[in-house]
Request: fold
Amino acid sequence: MENKKFDVAVIGGGPAGLAAALAAEKQGAKVILIERENSLGGILKQCIHDGFGLIRFKKKMAGPEYALSFIEEVEKSSVKVELLTFVTKITKTGSEIKVTVVNNQGISSIEVKTLVLSTGCRERTARQVAIHGTRPAGVFTAGTAQYYTNILGQLPTKKCIILGSGDIGLIMARRLTLEGAKVLGVYEAKSSPSGLRRNISQCLYDFNIPLYTSHTVTRVFGQDRLTGVEISKVDGKMQPIKGTEELLECDSLILSVGLIPENELAEGLNIPLDSKIKGPIADQNYMTMEQGIFTCGNAMHVNDLVDYVSESGEAAGKAAAEYSKGRRKIAKVNCGENILYEVPQILDLENIKGETVMFFRADRDMGPSELRVTVDGNEVFKKKYRALRPPEMERIQVDFQGVEINEKSNIQLSLREVKE
Reply:
């Protein structure tokens, strides 16, 4: 590695990392982008369906097409890209950050002023949702099934069950059907589906694929290859109800049971994580509780739309390039009534510029509702919604400038249902 000193290091070359690297470079920073795979783009490389870019580019794009628009900009820029490079350790002493990496050139250390963690997220597995039974071939996460189908060109199943109604699972229900596989049904332990409305409609209803809520897989059967699964109804606490077991024959079980932000590197730096979303606690400029360390995209919280992933990457990259060490005045942002989670979780009162972008999810399905943002009981923002669902993230812009806030202020987001 020729140059071992940079202003900003971005770890992860998916949509968040690409946007962060470009934004930092445009601010005049010397940037290195570190990616463990052999090409940039992250998960978008295997997402050949459309629906990306509607907000940013005002048109439908396939995942690779969306990623390519950023990759081409990176190739024209001065950003140094290191592929097939793994970060093994990050140490921070005072204001000095050292990143240890390994690749085909051996082990190297990179010194940087600031760091952006854009490491994305991973899928939950069968063991994490307590499915009992043998361990045969034929149990895939939805992302793995997507990789087999779209990248390797291999159909991983002829007759399958999909557990979980997350967006990747819904999209794969349609994709596998188009390739000739039989999807017996999508089973969801919750009482309502977890995916976006448009995916439920376009991927299930349009293809007559049944959706069963309040059902889960309790056991798998088979030795060398999966031969069937046991389906059970669940109660209000999502516990299997005895006597409702049903055996379905199939050759594959595809899991779409949630995503977890990848934050092993952040944990190695003892950066506090938000227990609700498993991402680092960060301010409105995406800086974590550790000075000079930023987070963005799905490493911070799992987003619905890649457009928002890129937006957070740009904000984090710009802030990382402009960072100058100084004491922060931090005020906590609290989840009020009917709020599942919100980000950012803190505000840096010394760096409030323009409107603050915030994201939140309702903690239950709600009809006509009103969101209020208050500071010490005083309303600073209000917005009405016709309906809200936990799977659908909402974005707002709140102007905190001119509002009296101190480190002990009670900043709160809350929701209440209202009459139309």
Observations:
- The longest strand covers residues 106-117.
